[in-house]
Design a protein that fits this description.
binds 6-O-phosphoryl inosine monophosphate; 4-stranded mixed beta sheet; 20 strands; binds guanosine-5'-diphosphate; binds magnesium ion
């Protein structure tokens, strides 16, 4: 019996999960999302074109692979239907390649309004959410009020929708927030109708049956480990389990059935939205990373906050996920740096810390180790041996610190700009 391999982000999201999943898809029969929703924005580049996926797994463009949206995902039918229409416009038969869990929860139009109203009420303390209704949808899930994909097929779906909507409108009456969902609600119901042609499945059965038949499955994470609801920089996190453990609950896979865990990180670090970021740079270097790395959100277009690689945080994420292989992305963005810094410890109130603490806030001062930059263009490299020595030293240091091999290196956004060791 085969095991499920996992690709997940080790930082605050946007590590390049979409690109890597697309690259790895030819090795797998199935690609499955296990958490998150349209807050995700996964970019794929191939044949000179760029696609951004939000809810659909990043295996969708490869012929011969099935894609599954698992029970742990939250779905906005308006956004999903639009995304599917865009993929279909490229000639892909999405219906033949995509299955959706009946147990996945629905994001209602009023969840989006609740997200926006809650953020507006928080003022400066806002999370910086993507305003897709993620938090309120997961709250209704754990509060046992949610609507699920399987409910769409029930005769009393409209009644259940209206009951939940009424509850939301009552909640919204406590906010000083003006809204009008008429147009969005129409889009939402159009989305519901267009989703009816898809296969709604017990994805836990599908996945486990496939494993029995020795099929290969890759689970695709969304967001990143430091945005995890349990172990991220709470409350500045998302509302799902982004860690490897989320694969078990978000797909119905037993812990003993988890195989390789690929942890993705950028050669530096970014964050979008509010919350602590110990190695954030507010100077010209930070701006250079943003411009060279084109660090603007794939979902919201917001500029991403940029800084040096944080090994303290990376080691925490490696530990929490049981990472067996590392994947380093956007190495090319550091091409023109004379020196590159990496945080190897934190200083907090005069004390040195070598772990990611509960108080990982603005009082943390990173302790840096400096590396000589490679200072040349590595975008054309396709074989590890061709990398300059300074680059190899950087990789070797990360491997030594984390105790995990770097198995894949990315030197550009395109599928082809990838080195598999
Ligand atoms: P995801 O959410 O983890 O899938 O990542 P995003 O797609 O939100 O952000 C990653 C961005 O970096 C996208 O614009 C990718 O096209 C781009 N990208 C991925 N890998 C590389 C790389 O190695 N080099 C460069 N320069 N860009 C990359
Ligand atoms: P991918 O999958 C980066 C951030 C938001 C905000 C916080 C909570 O593309 O890596 P939410 O809308 O989930 O309630 O927002 O989490 N966030 C992401 N940041 N990449 C993402 O997804 C993100 N999804 C959510 O910016 O700070
Ligand atoms: Mg993204």
């Amino acid at each position: 019996m085969k095991k499920v391999d996992v690709v997940l982000g080790l930082q605050w999201g946007d590590e390049g999960k979409g690109k890597v999943v697309d690259v790895l898809t030819p090795n797998y029969n199935v690609i499955a999302r296990f958490q998150g929703g349209p807050n995700a924005g996964h970019s794929l580049h191939f044949n000179g074109e760029k696609f951004v996926l939000h809810t659909v797994p990043s295996g969708i463009f490869r012929e011969g692979s099935m894609n599954i949206i698992g029970n742990g995902v939250v779905i906005d039918p308006a956004i999903l239907a639009e995304e599917i229409a865009q993929i279909e416009a490229t000639g892909v038969d999405v219906c033949a390649r995509l299955q959706i869990s009946k147990r996945a929860h629905l994001i209602l139009p009023t969840h989006r309004v609740l997200d926006a109203a809650s953020e507006a009420a928080k003022g400066k303390a806002k999370i910086g959410s993507t305003l897709k209704g993620i938090g309120p949808a997961y709250m209704d899930k754990t509060g046992r009020n949610g609507l699920r994909v399987g409910d769409i097929l029930m005769p009393d779906f409209m009644e259940r929708y209206n009951t939940l909507k009424a509850k939301h409108l009552e909640q919204l009456s406590h906010y000083d927030y003006v809204f009008d969902i008429t147009t969005y609600e129409q889009e939402w119901f159009k989305g519901i109708e267009s989703l009816r042609r898809f296969k709604f499945v017990e994805s836990e059965q599908v996945v486990n049956n496939l494993l029995q038949e020795d099929a290969t499955i890759l689970a695709e994470g969304a967001q990143g480990s430091l945005l995890d609801i349990e172990f991220g920089t709470y409350p500045f996190v998302t509302s799902s389990n982004t860690l490897c453990a989320g694969v078990c609950t978000g797909l119905g896979v037993a812990p003993t059935r988890i195989g390789e865990v690929y942890g993705i990180f950028k050669a530096y670090c970014t964050r979008v939205g509010s919350g602590p970021f110990p190695t954030e740079l507010f100077d010209a270097t930070g701006e250079t990373l943003r411009q060279v790395g084109n660090e603007f959100g794939a979902t919201t277009g917001r500029p991403r906050r940029c800084g040096w690689l944080d090994l303290v945080a990376l080691k925490y994420a490696v530990m929490m996920n049981g990472v067996t292989g590392l994947i380093m992305m956007k190495s090319d963005v550091l091409n023109d740096f004379e020196t590159i810094k990496v945080a190897t410890a934190y200083e907090l109130n005069g004390e040195m810390l070598d772990y990611f603490p509960y108080e990982a806030d603005e009082n943390i001062k990173p302790v840096y180790r400096e590396f000589k930059g490679w200072n040349c263009d590595i975008c054309g490299v396709r074989n590890f041996e061709e990398f300059p020595q300074e680059f190899k030293d950087y990789v070797a240091f990360i491997e030594a610190e984390t105790g995990v091999p770097v198995k894949i290196i990315s030197v550009g956004p395109d599928r082809e700009e990838t080195i598999i060791r």
